[in-house]
Each structure stands twice: as structure tokens, then as C-alpha cells.
Amino acid sequence: MNEQSRSPEFDVVVVGAGVAGLYLLHRLREMGVTAVAFESGDDVGGTWYWNRYPGARCDVQSIDYSYSWDTELDEQWEWSERYATQPEILRYLGFVADKHDLRRDIRFSTRVDGAVWNDATSLWEIATDDGATTTCRYYVMATGCLSVMKDADIAGVGTFDGEVYYTGRWPHEEVDFTGKRVGVIGTGSSAIQSIPIIASQADELTIFQRTPNFSIPAYNGPVRPADAARINADRAAYREEARWSSSGVPREVAELSALEVTEEVRQERYERAWQEGTIFSLMGAFNDILTNADANDTAAEFVRNKIRSIVDDPVTAEALCPKTYPLGTKRLCLDSGYYATFNQPHVRLVDLRENPIQSITGAGIDVVTADGATSYEFDAIVFATGFDAMTGAIVSVDITGRDGVQLRDRWADGPHTYLGVMSVGFPNLFMVTGPQSPSVLSNMALSIEQHVDWICDTIEHLRTDGKAVIEPTPVAEAGWVRHSNDFADLTLFPQANSWYMGANVPGKPRVVLPYLGGVDRYRKTCDQVVERGYLGFEVSGEEGTEVNDGVIIQLQPDVGIMIEFMEELALPPMDSMSPVEARAFSEAMAAESPAGPDVGQVLDGTLPGADGNDLDFRLYRPAEQGPHPIVIYFHGGGWVIGNATSDDALCRDLCVRSGAVIVSVDYRHAPEARFPAAPDDGFAAVRWIADHVDDFGGVPGQLAVAGWSAGANIAAVVTQRARDEGGPEISGQLLLTPVTDCDFTRPSYTENGDGYILTTALMTWFWDHYADVADRDDPRASPLRAESLAGLPPAMIVTCEFDPLRDEGEAYAAALADAGVDVRHRRARGQIHTSVPAVNALLSGVSVRGEMADALRGFFPAGVPA
Ligand code: FAD
Ligand code: NAP
After folding, report:
1. pLDDT for 153 beyond 60
2. Is 54 in the pocket of ligand 1 (CB under 6 A)?
3. By CB distance 3.0 to 4.6 Å, which of 75, 257, 312, 748 could disulfide with 807?
4. Whose CA is nearest to atom 43 of ligand 2?
5. Which tens digit of pLDDT belongs to each residue from 101-121?
């Protein structure tokens, strides 16, 4: 028998017996594998076992926050309220444990302290606080995202002589505050739920608030008839809809921006959301509450006005109004009478931003004031100070993976996971709702089920495949971490000092912990990993090791969403149309696109082309006092489509960001006017504008060219001609995803020629309309083929990772550099040919456009007014 085939005591060790641990045990038992769960508490329930503070209840409606895997439960258990209390939820979990006889596989009051991967046996050795070691093949941390309390990082903690309570470790016996002076530290969800009830008992209640939270009323009571009717109509369909919703609760998806409706409509929607009494309603009222600061502020101000209208004392009301972070970027709270509690005479708020805690003392709490200190004396202090969320419970166990590496060391700069379920170097270790999965941003009961199912299906797959070990690859994991961060960067979440960011625990790395892509998208991705043969995993067994390396999502999140949307529309490909049809189609699409930013002035006119023809132009002038440098811009469209106004949003954006006048000039199009009409017109336009700089409000000698795609091709050609044909002097060239060559054999064509909007077929269609094959070698068509690129002005070239034109753009950048030209090249990660110009539609292109504008500024030595 070799080491690997040595039998473990259990196939699976589960840590934790909360919502996750219970379902895991059930699934594993059904699969016929041996499993044991270790739980440090003395009963099941997890969160609902530990958090027994007054007022504790769920903030996702119980009809949603409940198991869907046992459909009999829907008949056997009826929730008494929309938001069940902690005792009711605990009873429910106990009922499930009894019904499925789960307790017999749980070792209560047993803490897992350590876990060591044995490479020789391919087994985990799990050490518990009773001194025992248990071996298993698979080790599942179902230890909870909010199960380890954060240290009370306050001076003098431990010195108080009175009663001390922690919301997350509340005593099992009833606590009565009647007749007592009570202090509560913290104003998160736990405090907001407990404060009204503590106030109803205590003689005096003092609340110490460091950061106010947004809270909306729960309007708790019986399940609303409309909600009950909807779920009872077809429970299975309702649950399925939840699985494919973004938060794990079926909801209508908002399509409008908060900024595109009237104030009246906005307020009406917010009021409706407020009355709905769910944490998702306000954030889902418009499609940009979590991505656009101005949109968010309209919702935030709505809540602040509600607070002002409820709380009588204006100073207290203002102190309760959150103003330092966007709404929803800290977990929204759901309350029952929280703000009104501050109208009671025996309740007072201490604003720790004004008067920070100096120390906890034997008698109470001292805070710093302008003239020294004020002492508050208490009989009891309640710490509602939160958790070391998402990673705390995982890294508090000494987990040693391959080569003796500790998980907590590997995660010293923040968690590294693949899909939030596994981590490189820790084979066969699974995490339920781990960091970089939707977890705490969703209905967790549902996210837990999805993870448990995925983990169990994976174990089953390995068993049937005769494999014993699974581990993500470094490439897959790095890709997932990057993708998770990319999503976060599209949102306002990084702006808050929240526990989502690890910011509540001193010294914890500041990274976005949950995955922000939504439950539906995440589920689809997990499914795709499996469908693609466990992409991103190394799997091994007695017969050897198989590595299926790769990154599951490489596109920028918003670009991927846009492509999916386009695919759903199933539009006909442009290359199946005539040029006239394609132009009409492209104009119709452009009419649907968001507008660019306001500029100081927009002016339309004409100027002479190369052949006595008129060329339309549109000029964009910055709001700042001129004169300004001039950038002559050529639109994209494969020499066939587009006009002076078709890249309006991009031109506005460049104008605002660069402080230059942008003159977007049209040129004759193919097939009516084939090569070289377009570059001839481009060159004529540049010469004409150079001769009329004053008329355009420009600065003499400060003239650059820019363009996108075929327009960038024209810009590059014009720059070469200006060098060769006696001017004008061009200060710089900004080429966004340029066509520089007629060669279709570069790898970017093979890799990206299909599926990323600009296809090989469409490029073929463009070239065929534009130029005879014999002409395509001409540097005026393929500027990369110029005899020399020496002496050209500085260039900024942007290429996109998933663009067929990527490699020719990069070849041009390299050739310019070889010729001694000052070149700045940015390969935009995860972008496609059409995504960077999508101003106000795709957020991920913002930084690229920022760099483009920087380059424009850099072209003009005298500087551009900032
Ligand atoms: P937990 O319930 O946290 O269970 C983990 C268990 O693992 C614990 O019992 C713990 O004792 C045990 N454990 C941890 N480490 C070890 C170890 N080393 N050895 C042995 N045992 C260990 N989510 C929602 O979606 N909706 C809500 O309404 C909601 N309300 C919440 C209210 C409160 C007060 C809190 C704190 C959280 C709330 N959550 C809510 C999040 C909640 O944590 C999850 O919904 C869910 O209960 C988590 O279940 P779990 O089994 O993954 O983890
Ligand atoms: P929390 O949201 O992290 O709130 C902790 C509070 O304590 C914050 O107001 C924090 O202020 C304050 N605090 C922490 N350290 C402090 C210090 N040293 N001095 C002064 N104040 C300090 O924790 P929570 O209320 O326990 O909630 C955690 C999460 O659990 C929630 O977000 C939610 O997901 C879940 N939960 C849900 C419900 C529910 O309604 N179902 C109820 C409870 C909890 P700062 O903000 O300034 O750090």
C-alpha cells in the first residue's frame, strides 16, 4: 500500500455547525462519505447560537433566509414574522438538525486549533483543543464570516467593575437592564437592533458612536400578503429565481440611473423603497447607486432627511447622519424604532468623532472633551463592536499547507483564493462563503447552499474520477483575485472604512473581501469552471496529475457584461450588411449610448478636404479660458462608417480631461471614396487647421493628432506625411487601438478574431471596401510599412488585450521606439476594441482615458491650463 492510499479516519472533516455545517453534513451523508463536524459551541446554530442579544433577528426576510434544499421544511415550518428573531431561527436550525439526525455527527464544545497537510499521505491532520488529532481527506471550513469577534481595541478594556456584555457572545440566560445605567459602544447592525430594547428597560442609556450607519425601518410584522402570494404561487420557481438574482433574493432589476430621472420620480422611488423595508430595496432603486457617487448621494441624502425628520434634537439628528462614506458601502442596517429611541429623555448619544474615548475605567467610560475629560458611569457596558470578518475564523486556526506554509502568512497582504473556495498551497481545503465570494453581500442562506453544493459535487467528482487531491493553480487564483478586485474598483465600496474592506480591525490589510459581481454571475462562473473541466485546478490521484490551467474571467467585468448583453440582443453582424445599412445601424447604436461630459463650447463647421470637397468638423472647447492647444481627432469606423460627431462622447471626455480643443474632422468614406481619399482628407484638414490656429482658439505650434481604430490609422499616416511633406509641425500622436498594418496573421487576430465585437470578418469587410489588395502595402494604408519611422513626434499608443488589432498596434509602438521616437504604450488589460471609448457606459476604461489625456498634456511643452 503506498502512502497516498492510506485511509483517513473520515473522508471529510467539517468545522462549524451553523447554517453551512448542517447542510454540509446532510449532503455528505447522502453521498455516502464519512464525515464529522467540530463545533466550539455546545449546540448547533452558529451565528444564531452566539448572537443572543436583545432584538437580534435576521435582516433578510425569513422566507428567503431559510434552507431550500429540504422542500418539506416549507410545509413543516412557518415563520411567525417577516424577520424572525434569533430564538426562532435557532429553533429552526435545531429542528432541521433533529429532523435529519445531524447532531450525531457533530462533536460539540470542540475547537479546531490546527490543521496540517501531509503531502506523503495526501491527508489533513486536524488538531482539536481536546488534544486529539483526526485525519481526513477533505477539510471544509464552515466557520462563518462573522463568527470571530474583533478585539475591543479600547484603552482600559477589562478594568470595568460592572457587567460587561458582547453582542456576539451574549449569555444564554436572560439579561435584564431594568433600573440600570447602560453604555453601548458601537452603532452597527447589532447595536441598532439592540438599542431600542435596552432603552425600554434601562434607567439611562448612553450610546457611544464612532461612525453613524444608514438604517432603514424593517416594518416587521406578519409576512406581507403580496410576498406570501408570490412565493406560495410556485415555491420552486421562486427559489430558482433567487439563485439567479444578484443578491440571492428575487427582485426587479433597476434599469434607470438615479441621475436620469426628475427629483420627483427619484423621491417617489426612494420612498417606495423605504416603505418596502428590506436592505436591498434602496440600493436597488436605481442601477448606479453603488457605482456613481452622485447617484449614491441622492439616496444617502434621502435617508439623512428621514433621520432629520425622526430625531427631534437637531444636533443629535445631524450626528446620526452618515456623511463620510457612500450608502450601502457599509452593510445597511434594518431597524425597529432605532432613530426614534433618541427622542427618549433617558437616551443620549456621545459622538466619538467629537469626543473620543479616552479609557474605560472601573466606573464607566471617560471621553476626551475640549476642557479635559467627561466621565460616564455605568452599571453595564455592552460592546457591539463587531467582528474580524470573513478571514478571522479561517486564519485563527493554525493551518499549515504544502511545504510548511501557514495560511495566515500566505494571506498576510489579504486573502488569495480561487472562487473564494480554495487557496493555492492548501490542497483539499475548502471554505464555505470564503473571501472573494459573494457571501456577506447576499442572502447568505442561499450562498451557503451554492457553496456546499459546489464543494460536495467536487468531492463527488474526484471520487468517481478516482482522484484524491485538488488544488487551484497559481494562475487561476491570481486571475480570480484580480477579477474580484476589478469588480470592486468599479464600485464605491473601496471608499468606506468598513469591515467589507477589513478596515475595522487595526493592522488588517485593506482589501475588498466579498465578491461584488453578484450571486447570479458568481454561480454561473462556478458552473463554468466545472463545465470547462475544472478550469484552473490541478487534480491528482494514483494515476498521476492533470493540470487544467487557465483564468476563468479575463475581461474587465463591465466589458464582459456588455458583451453578454450584445450577445443576448443577437444583432446581425455588420459584415452581413451593405455599407449604407451598416452606417444606419451604427448611428442607431450610437443614439442609444450615454452622452459624454459637458464642455465649454461645441461648434460645428466645415473645412476644405483634399479634393475640393467639404469636410464636416465638430469642435469641443474646454470651459477654461483659452487659447488652448489643438488636437485634431479622426473617428473610428473602418474607413466606412462614422462621421465628425460619431465619437462625440470620447471627444468630450478627452477635451475635459486634457484641457485641449478637440477638433473632430470627418473624411471621405469607402467604398464611395476608396484609398487614399481618407488619409488625403485627413492631411488636408491638418494643414488647414494649422493655418487657421487662431480662428480655432488654438496656441500656435501646439497641434497634435489623435484617432481611434481606422481614425488612428489616419492620424498615424498624417503624422508621417507632415514629417515628409514639409509640415505642419505636429507635437504628438495619440493612437487608440490603431490599424497600422494589413497583415491578419498576427496572434491577436487568431486569439481575438471572434467574440469581441470587432471580428476578423468585420476587419476583412472594412479592408475590402477600403483598399485594393495591391494598395494595402502602401504606408498611407499600413503606416507600419513606412520606410522609416525616425523623426516622428512623440506617441501614445493604447492597445487592448482582447482586440484583433492589438499586435499591430504594439508592433507600431515597438517600431517607433526602435526608430528613436518617444513612445508611451499602454496595453489595456481586459479591454476590447470598442470598450475604451465607451464613455459613461463602461467604467473600467476611465483610467485608460485618463492616461490618454495625460499623454495629450505631455505633448504640449508649455503646458495646458489644468
Ligand atoms: P456561522 O453561523 O458563523 O457558524 C460557524 C460556526 O463555526 C460557529 O458556530 C463557530 O462556533 C464555529 N467555529 C468557528 N471556528 C471554529 C473552530 N476553529 N473550531 C470549531 N468551531 C468553530 N446573513 C444573512 O444573509 N441574513 C441575515 O439576516 C443575517 N443576519 C445576521 C445577524 C447577525 C447578528 C450576524 C452576526 C450575522 C448575520 N448574518 C446574516 C450572517 C450569518 O453569519 C450567516 O447568515 C450565516 O448564519 C452563517 O452561517 P455559517 O454556518 O456559515 O457560519
Ligand atoms: P459592525 O457593523 O462592525 O459595527 C461595529 C460598531 O462598533 C461600529 O459602529 C464601529 O464603529 C464600532 N466600534 C468598533 N470598534 C470601536 C472602538 N474601538 N471604539 C468605538 N467604536 C467602535 O458590527 P455588528 O454591528 O456586529 O455587525 C456586523 C455584521 O453582522 C453586520 O454588518 C451584518 O452583516 C451582521 N449583522 C446582521 C444583523 C441583522 O440585522 N440581521 C444584526 C447584527 C449583525 P466604526 O464603524 O467607526 O468602526
Report:
1. yes
2. no
3. 748
4. 190
5. 999 999 999 999 999 999 999
Mean pLDDT of 595-622: 97
pLDDT tens profile 760-795? 999 999 999 999 999 999 999 999 999 999 999 999
Do residues 461 and 447 touch, judged by C-beta distance below 8 A? Answer: no
Q: Counting ligands in written order, which one lies closest to the CA of residue 22?
A: 1
Report yes or no on whether pTM surpasses 0.85. yes
Q: How many residues does the chain have?
A: 866
> Are 76 and 91 spatial neighbours (Cβ–Cβ below 8 Å)?
no
CA pair distance 323, 455, nearest whole angstrom = 41
**DSSP symbol at 851:** H
- 151 secondary structure, DSSP code: P
C-alpha cell belonging to residue 16: 462549524
CB 659 within 8 A of CB 653: no
| Cell triple for 825 | 504604450
Give DSSP secondary structure letters for 512-543: --S--S-HHHHHHHHHHHHHTTSTTEEEEETT
Cβ density class 728-738: b for 16+ within 10 Å, e for less = bebbbbbbbbb
- Mind listing the pLDDT tens digit for each residue in 566-582? 999 999 999 999 999 99
Q: Is the CB of 503 under 6 A from ligand 2?
A: no
Q: How far apart are CA 104 and CA 106, in angstroms?
A: 6
Which residues are paired to 604 by β-bridges? 618
Dmax of the chain from CA atoms?
Answer: 96
- For the Cβ of 245 lying below 6 angstroms from any atom of ligand 1, the answer is no
What sections of 380-443 are H helices per DSSP? Answer: 392-395, 407-410
The Cα–Cα gap between 337 and 344 comes to 11
Nearest CA to ligand 1 atom 44: 444
